[in-house]
Design goal:
This is DeoR/GlpR family DNA-binding transcription regulator. The protein has about 250 residues and is an alpha/beta fold. It has 2 domains: about 55 residues, Arc Repressor Mutant, subunit A; about 180 residues, Translation initiation factor eif-2b, domain 2 (Rossmann fold). About 35% of the residues lie in helices and about 25% in strands. Strands 6-5-4-9-12-14-15 form a 7-stranded parallel sheet, sandwiched between helices. Helix 7 links the parallel strand 5 and strand 6. Helix 6 packs parallel to helix 7 and helix 8 runs parallel beside helix 9. It is elongated. The relative contact order is 0.13.
Length: about 250
Amino acid sequence: MIGAERRERLIARLDDSGVIRLEESAAELGVSSMTVRRDLEALELEGVVVRVRGGAVATVKARSFTERQGVDDVAKTEIARKALDLMPTTGSIAVDASSTSGHLLAQFKPGATTDLVVATNSAHNHARARALRGTRAILVGGELEPHTESFVGPVACAAAAMLNYDRFFTSAAAADPEGGTSETIIEEAQVKREFVRAARETVLLINSAKLGRRAMAAALSWSQISIVVTELDPRDARLDVLRDLVEIR
């Protein structure tokens, strides 16, 4: 089997299961694990996969807020519903530029807050925060990232670090037990790290479909995250890999 055919088979496996396992693929293709490793290196250079221990996962692509907003809407709505109990009514919070955090803000009822400051690096989420009575919305400015429609760069990082937050609510492009969370855009990961440093606690709002995956830019370690909220029942076996790392809701 020539290299191009092997790589097509590997991509087909990736499309089916979302992951390529090194030893399993070597046995299936009848080649050495070193051969599959070289194929994965080639696919990584093409931007098709990201290599992880024991194999590779699909590359996560950057999408605009508008594109992300309508994806996995049921899961995001359930995540936001479960996270509402974690939202304070006074003090200050930060929310990232994710559509999942946008769902959380959208589920607040008018008048639910009494004196809450909400800082975000998203114009979309800033508009949602402004619609909440009793809330002071702060937009962290900077350079507009065209793919994610978030504000990033040195100005955004400096502004994010100027306040102290009771909680930072963030999603992620991907998360895995070994590497923590990751993002498609390096600058987006940088702003999130500044929010985390300034926050007393960080809450990760993440669709379970993103677990076990990696994007290009490393963002947060599990030691920086206090609570994970997914759409799954906290007892779901798919969350077992995270139980020793973080509180799950």
